[in-house]
Amino acid sequence: MHPLCDNVYDYSSQKGFSAKSYRGFVYAGSQKARHAYDIFRKKAKSSILLYLLMSVVALVAFIHIGAYSIRYSKLEGHVGSSIEDSYTAVYSTVVSLEPLCSKSLNMSSNGKSGPSIKISDAYINQIISALKYINSKEAIPDGGDMVELGNIARTYQKAFDIYYQLVICQYDSATRTRMEDQLFQLEKKLYPWIINGPMYHSAVESLLKSKGRGIVMTTGSKYALVAQHSITMLNFIGNQLPIEIIYCGEDDLGQKERDALTSLHRVTLVDMQSVLGLKKCSKGWENKPLAVLASSFQQVILMDTDALFFQHPETLFETKAYKETGALFFRDRTLGFGTYGRGPGLTDLINTLAEPFKENLIFNTSRVMAKVSSDELDSGVVVWDKTRSMPAILLTCALNSMPYMDLIYSKTYGMHLLFKSNTR
C-alpha cells in the first residue's frame, strides 16, 4: 500500500490550514494524526514564518516540515525501491497503485480515465495562481527578506505535495500540466541546482529516482585518509550498507585519493558538481545538504569522515524516532551559552521570526532558547528519509548558499545548526 494514495486528506476543506507536511497531514489517515492536525491548526494560525523558521534555527530542528507532521501521524512506508532509474519508467512501476488511488481519491479527472485525487480543483488552482504570481517576479528575494523567502518556500512545498501525488497516482490532465509548468519555473529560480545537471529535470524526478538505503560522506583530498579510516572501521564491524563518497569537482578530490577510496568495499564516488550541474564548488559544510540531494539513496545516513560507529549503522533506521519522523539527530555537546560568541545571535534571529510560535513546546524546551547551551544538535551523523523531506532538504541547500548563507552563518554556527533544523 503506497502512503501517497492512502486516505489522502482534503486540504481545501480546512480553513487556516498552514505549514503541513506532505507525509503527515496530507495523508492523515489515523485519528491520532487528525487530532494532531486540530492541535497544530490552533497553534499555527497565520504561520507565515513557520516554514522558514524550521529551516533557519537549530531549536526548530524537531519541528521542520516533515518532522512534526510525521511525529504525530506516525505514518510509515516510502516510495518503493522497485521504482526504476528512468523517469519515464516511473509511471509503469506504479500501475499497481491505480485501484487504490481510484478508490481512495476523488478529484475530477476531467472525463479521462484513471485515478482521481481528493484535493479540490479550486485548491489546486489557488496554488497554481500563487505560483504564477511568484514566477511573474524577476527574482527571488535576497538575504534581506527572509520572511518573503519563507512565504515562497511554503507555496513551493504545497505545490510539490500536490504534484507528487499527481505523479504517483498517474493523474494525467491539463491540471497536472499547468501545475508542472509553474512548479518547474519556481524550482529553476529557487533551487536551480536540482535541474542544472544531466540527471534530473525536477525535484520530484530526483526523489523518484532515489532508492534504497546507504551511507553518504563528503570529503576532499585533505580528509580522504580520514574517510578511508572510517570506511575501514565500518567494514570491520560488519556494515552491509553501500557507501557514496560525495565530492565537488576534480579539484576537490585528487585522482590518487579517488583510486584509494574506490578500492574499498562497497564504495562509490559521486561528483556532485556533475550530478547537480553546479557552476561553482564549495569546500566546506555547505556541501553536506547538497550531498544528500546528489546521492542515489532514498534513505541516507550522512556522516562526517571522522565519525566512528561501534555497532551496525543500519540500526539507526530501526530506531523509534526515525520510524516516526523520517529523521534522526544527536544532541551536540553542552557549552555555556555565549561560548565562542555562539547563542545570542541565534536567539535574536528566532525571537524575530518566531513571535507567533513562542508557545510551541519545542520552542520552550530548546536548550539554546533557555540559554542552557550555545548549541542544540550535532551534524556529525544525520539520518534522513528523502520521501518525507524533499522540500526541507531543498530549502536547507538554499540557506547554505548565497545570498542567504552570510546572514544565517553570522547568526549561527553555520551548518552545525542549519542542517539539522530542516531535516525532514
From TrEMBL:
The keyword Zinc-finger does not apply. Keywords: Glycoprotein, Glycosyltransferase, Membrane, Signal-anchor, Transferase, Transmembrane, Transmembrane helix. This is Nucleotide-diphospho-sugar transferase domain-containing protein. GO terms for molecular function: alpha-1,3-mannosyltransferase activity. Its main location: membrane. Belongs to the MNN1/MNT family. InterPro entries: Alpha_mannosyltransferase, Nucleotide-diphossugar_trans. Signal peptide: none annotated. It comes from Batrachochytrium dendrobatidis (strain JEL423).
